[in-house]
Amino acid sequence: xxxxxxxxxxxxxxxxxxxxxxxxxxxxxxxxxxxxxxxxxxxxxxxxxxxxxxxxxxxxxxxxxxxxxxxxxxxxxxxxxxxxxxxxxxxxxxxxxxxxxxxxxxxxxxxxxxxxxxxxxxxxxxxxxxxxxxxxxxxxxxxxxxxxxxxxxxxxxxxxxxxxxxxxxxxxxxxxxxxxxxxxxxxxxxxxxxxxxxx
Amino acid sequence: xxxxxxxxxxxxxxxxxxxxxxxxxxxxxxxxxxxxxxxxxxxxxxxxxxxxxxxxxxxxxxxxxxxxxxxxxxxxxxxxxxxxxxxxxxxxxxxxxxxxxxxxxxxxxxxxxxxxxxxxxxxxxxxxxxxxxxxxxxxxxxxxxxxxxxxxxxxxxxxxxxxxxxxxxxxxxxxxxxxxxxxxxxxxxxxxxxxxxxxxxxxxxxxxxxxxxxxxxxxxxxxxxxxxxxxxxxxxxxxxxxxxxxxxxxxxxxxxxxxxxxxxxxxxxxxxxxxxxxxxxxxxxxxxxxxxxxxxxxxxxxxxxxxxxxxxxxxxxxxxxxxxxxxxxxxxxxxxxxxxxxxxxxxxxxx
Lengths: 199, 351
Prior knowledge:
heterodimer; A: mainly alpha; B: alpha+beta; two-stranded antiparallel ribbon
């Protein structure tokens, strides 16, 4: 019998399973930022990431009674976000292949794609501009990674999940997590060197 | 280890994911190889850049939008009645499946009950009661008559069992078969006259059956000649009666009997109340007296037993017959009896 994961969210999840909507609202408030960042780093598009996160929370609520507590609620929710993000990426690629670039798509420059600036807490305008430019390029390099490399990189290096948590989220062995992560970092390094020059 | 191999192991080296031996090799190589050392620095920097990525903030309406959507979903599920209804893509297949199941069950039940329904059909006409006129005539009218009480025993297919021509002959053969079985004869006689080949008994003929009585009268008229006042049925009427019951074939059988009667040497008529009982008694009497070549013919209200008996036993026979019923000797040849005289005993219902 699997031990239940120690989770600060246990109480709220229990109330949700009894039909308490306020408890679920509290969970949304608590985890939406982290989930949005995962979706954003996966998809690379802020609006699409917002939609994915909404869908993820809605899907989580509908399935809340099936949640057995074998993993942490955040881990379970992250799995949903990752899956929906990958689905969305496939749709975007398919649309791009079928319809071609849209006039609404970000303009591609020499350095990389310029995307709509997501809100952030950086105060200095110039620094912020430089910073955003760099981050845009970094995001472009992340987008260039294969899905299976991207997800481990986002979860480990950006979100700070442990190898065990990543294993639970992605349902892959520890060895696979590490091998994919190492290759992802190597590939990203090569991409960044091309885009940014010297790191 | 070459540079390519070293660089492949650098990410693991950063994660402390190499063996001590590999770690020593890598560090030794890094100390001598600038490119690999540079690669290691780039790798570290990449990790820092990625970790330094800004965290995006969710829009302020995110929570509200999520909860609105959830509450709308809850309202849809709301009432108990609504809970019974699935989405169309679930409901329609379920309904289609239920319809198919009901149809299959209905067909199965129908097929299972069908044999029982067939067996519960209204009973078909009882076995045709073979009456005097019926057996040779497979006509619908015969069935009605055959149902009348006091009718003779039914036969399944009178046309087959009693062809018009061979009715009397067949009756004679059957009577021969049953003659040796006293118990069976007694049973049949108790229950009434039984037609050969019928195999079933007939109810004892009630005394007040005008049709039967009239038939008996018709037979009696033909066999004995003198009409009786109590049984006044003119010959044409009797014939009509025969026809009414399909009596053409029976008339022929009576004729055959009459023919044999004329050829017989001694004739005695015994008038009794119960013909079937009398038959049994006469048979027992004949057997006791040592009669040979006994033959029996049974007709409606009439039975004819012929046998060969020693002349010395004749007197005793007639005395015993008087104990059974009223005896009428109709043949004058009695006086001229010789050894082994053929006697014909006609047992008639006196009513």
